[in-house]
Amino acid sequence: MGRTPIDDVIVVGGGIIGLSIAREAARSGLRVRLFEKGEVGREASSAAAGLIGPQIGLQRDDPLQSLGLASRDLYPAFAREIAGESGIDPCLLERGTLVLACGAGEIEEIDRQAAFHRSLGLAAERVGGEALQRLEPSLGPGCSEGLHLPRDWSVDNVRLVQGLGRAAERSGARLQAGTRVDRILVEKGRAAGVGAGGERFPAGAVVIAAGAWTQEIGGAGITPPPSHPVRGQIVCLGPAAAPCRPLYSHACYLVPRRDGRILVGSTMERAGFDRQVTAAGLAALTAAALAIVPALRGAPFHSAWAGLRPATDDGLPAIGPASVPGLVYACGHLRNGILLAPITALVVGRMLRGEDSGFDLARFDPRRFAGAAREREDG
Ligand SMILES: Cc1cc2nc3c(=O)[nH]c(=O)nc-3n(C[C@H](O)[C@H](O)[C@H](O)COP(=O)(O)OP(=O)(O)OC[C@H]3O[C@@H](n4cnc5c(N)ncnc54)[C@H](O)[C@@H]3O)c2cc1C
Hints:
By secondary structure, this protein is of the alpha/beta class. The chain has two domains: about 10-50 and about 160-225 and about 315-379, FAD/NAD(P)-binding domain; about 95-150 and about 230-310, D-Amino Acid Oxidase, subunit A, domain 2 (D-Amino Acid Oxidase, Chain A, domain 2), CATH 3.30.9.10. The chain is built from nine helices and 19 strands. It has helices at about 15-25, 45, 65-85, 105-120, 130-135, 155-170, 280-290, 335-350, 370-379; strands at about 10, 30-35, 50, 95-100, 125-130, 145-150, 155, 175, 180-185, 190-195, 200, 205-210, 230-235, 245-250, 255, 260-265, 300-310, 320, 325-330. It starts with 7 loop residues before the first strand and ends with a helix. About 50% of the residues are buried. Flavin-adenine dinucleotide binds near residues 16, 17, 18, 232 and 334.
């Protein structure tokens, strides 16, 4: 961002990332205007399952490790503050997550995971046999070994996004739904606002948090980070009494909501901007869920939906300044946008204030794609 002091900012995109940033910026005294092309919070951020699980599947040298863990640590206060500011409780469920092994190869994998987590000083308990059944009595016979991650949680992301919208407005941010931003205005080599519907909206800085659509928003001399959608389908069952905490297996995950619904997710598909639920998606997720929790056989079907996860070309988010001063990207959070919302808001808020982000964000630098984009243009 540089050190140019600004007193206002435009945020493009009203998903969890844009809303969290708008709230953070407004709380620090900036005038904030957020543009959303559709309805606030209705895209990927409402379609998600709400896992706050940085330890799930954590690999050695995972570039997201420190951001993910730091963001999880922020969650209890974040959820409490949003509930207090908005009156909408996002229902943070702090019962841990159970990663299940179904088959010999997977048992070795969770043993490796347990040892790795402990080497980092992270809480992780190997549970099997009767202890596993006591922890989660609903499990079917195929799941006899597991890894309990007591600090990986879940949140009701639909309520969280609703609460964030209200909290951002109460902090002074102006949310404008139904307004598609067409381009970023650049004046004297600096981002100076946005253009939407033939109008110009000036601002001292612009943050693009437009999810899977980020690449569509250009401007003079601007190379947006590449973005594409990755469809995820969810089947919702219930009300049902089990499971009582999130269960995660290689085939699917199950996430209970406070009202008794059980979300079963999720597919990872390259299907363009098509948000349809498919017969194959429904069948595969339902079969996988029933194998893990057979008692769900009698559960009523509640609903099903699909959402578009925002991905970049290397699967990592783009968080930070663009090559044009005054422009910041916060996009490409793929499977982790709910988890990473609090930390993304914190670091982008610091950048907007001209402060150090406090994290090594080199791997997420939005400018890392510029070389490839130039080659595409030349070729
Ligand atoms: C099925 C599924 C399950 C998931 N489960 C989890 C999970 O358990 N845990 C987790 O951490 N993450 C999960 N995710 C990922 C998470 O949902 C995303 O990473 C996150 O929602 C991204 O937030 P966002 O604000 O960047 O994008 P979005 O929520 O998509 O918001 C972007 C917004 O920008 C708006 N926009 C786009 N272009 C413009 C424009 N030109 N002008 C104005 N507005 C514009 C869009 O309309 C949209 O509302 C899941 C996703 C899916 C689909």
